Amino acid sequence: MTSESDRSRRDVLILGAATALVGAGLAGPAAAELKTVVYNNSGGASADAARAAWGGLMRDRASSNLLVTAPASVARLKAMIQARNVEWDVAELVSQEHKQAIRESMLQKLDLSVIDLSHTPDDCKDEYSVVYALYSTAMAYSSKIAAAKRPGSWAEFWDVAKFPGRRALRNHPVDNLEFALLADGVPKDKIYPIDFDRAFASLDRIKKHIAVWWRDGSQPAQMLIDGEVDFTSGWHGRFFALAQKGETGFGVQWNQAMLKRSWVGVPQGAKNPREAMQLISFMIDPTASAKYAEGIGYICCDARANNHLPENVRPWVMSNPAIAELTVSANEQWWLDNGELAQRKWNDWIVT
């Protein structure tokens, strides 16, 4: 369901894009010759990185302007398809959402005459979608906390006596159920299927110590910078984007970070399917993906992209072997099958 704020945000994005074209002198006949390809994205630093990495390629090689909208929403995508008024040409589908979109026939098959998947591992592609971004939900800490007092695992995050400080977690079952089981001593290769009773019993032990249950991806890093909390979970790209701007108020603990995947596909009824396929081809191009990583720290599954990364970005990407071996891979199929039940249980638990 789309809220008024979502619609307002979309309108602002569209108006901003139009203003930018005018300011660049492209609002006349030259701009009229270009199509506008709409890419729906998670927003924030990811949207900025997308424009920087792929906007020029779309203009120069696909005769199209790239308009990035946010937030990503599989529910809204479904509603647009049902209404036969699809506004997006390319849709980001986070983790298990791509499986839902395929199951409910929301996506067109990828055009392999346009998109080269030969260097993409099998677990990062299917007939309808492809992973364009590997990312993580990781633990982060305030730089003001002494190194010896920074949790190095979720068991230590749960240990409020040994590692005192104000804590924050996302107000959502995704990742938190896994973190709770890791904190309770479950090995990372035994997390799934998730034992709800054990996970919520573990969450019961930490609940009263959570100062903030965050909802927006921009909150965690800002809370650390502002001194509102000392430890939090968060999407690592948001920490990366601020760190690249010189922010030193926080650090990231990679151990037991949840490794996640963002997929992209072309919706049924998209207005510019050919250009949409071209955009996806750029999104998984090694050089262009590395350019995207410079803005957000997320990268595609093609190992060749690592060769194009600046040195300051390499320590942040999930394809870095030193990081990858520490992470826990999210089980997208489990969340597809059990996500609604997990959400209901979470909603009941968080208010008790």
From TrEMBL:
Coiled-coil positions: none
The entry's localization annotation reads:
Periplasm
Tell me the protein family, please. Belongs to the bacterial solute-binding protein 1 family.
Q: What is the name attached to this protein's record? A: ABC transporter substrate-binding protein
Query: InterPro entries, per this entry?
Result: SBP (IPR006059), TAT_signal (IPR006311)
* UniProt entry keywords in alphabetical sequence: Periplasm, Signal, Transport
Name the species this protein comes from.
Answer: Prosthecodimorpha hirschii
* Superkingdom of origin organism: Bacteria
Has the keyword Transport been applied to this entry?
yes
GO molecular-function term, one example from the UniProt record: thiamine binding
CDD domains the UniProt entry points to: PBP2_polyamine_RpCGA009 (cd13589)
GO BP of this protein: thiamine transport
Q: Record's GO cellular component, any one?
A: outer membrane-bounded periplasmic space
